[in-house]
Amino acid sequence: MRDQSSLRMAQPGDIDEIVSLVNGYASDSVMLPITSERVALALADFIVAADARGRVRACGALKEYSPSLAEVASLAVARDAHGSGLGRRVVAELEALARMRGIDELFALTLTSGFFESVGYVVTERARYPEKIRRDCTSCPRRFGCNEVCVARMLRADTLEYAA
Ligand SMILES: CC(C)(COP(=O)(O)OP(=O)(O)OC[C@H]1O[C@@H](n2cnc3c(N)ncnc32)[C@H](O)[C@@H]1OP(=O)(O)O)[C@@H](O)C(=O)NCCC(=O)NCCS
Q: How far apart are alpha carbons 92 and 85 in whole angstroms?
């Protein structure tokens, strides 16, 4: 069943719930952990889905690498809401935010490439994003055993080089 949560930009009062949502998956090694300080600094880049009582049910962020390139990061949906369309809606909202900011291309490194493929991303080479490798991968504790898959989506119709 479709989840009834509404999507909005994150607010300071959401920080603790975002951290606990993401770190709940980090403890299962599905995501990398985040801290409240990092979320607070990047709050303007976070979208949340909140239920009628204001509780955060899902989140996701844009991590910008250049004026035209950003990563879909910290994407997480509460376990009891999986499969109800929230992940798709958060990604769509992040794409709308990216378009508004003039960003042409989004990528993600993920263990759930199947989800991203379902919402319009294609698998590509991580080497395409040396900015990401320099910023995060070279200092990541999992860099020698990383099994994340790189997925990407071009947002502008005239840069559809991944289109089938
Ligand atoms: C991955 C995740 C964000 C998906 O969110 P969700 O709300 O359950 O996904 P949706 O209900 O919006 O599903 C959208 C589509 O993706 C598919 N999908 C969802 N999870 C999938 C998965 N793990 N593998 C393959 N396909 C998946 C759904 O079947 C659906 O496809 P359809 O529209 O063709 O039927 C969520 O499972 C999650 O938070 N996982 C743990 C954290 C994580 O892995 N985050 C991503 C890190 S980059």
A: 11
CB 74 within 8 Å of CB 60: yes
- pTM across the whole model: 0.93
| CA of 57 relative to ligand 1 center, distance in Å | 14
Question: Domains in the chain: how many in total?
Answer: 1
- Two tokens, residue 38: 């990092």
Ligand 1 pocket, residue 77 CB under 6 Å: yes
Any domain includes 83: yes
- Distance between CA atoms of residues 149 and 122, nearest Å: 10
Residue 164 belongs to some domain of the structure: no
Q: Which domain holds residue 134?
A: 6-159
Answer whether residue 34 is part of any domain.
yes
pLDDT tens-digit map of 140-164: 777 777 889 999 999 976 555 544 4
CATH (domain of 25): 3.40.630.30
Q: With a 6 A CB cut-off, is 120 part of the ligand 1 pocket? A: no
Taking the CB of residue 56, how many other CB atoms lie within 10 A of it? 24
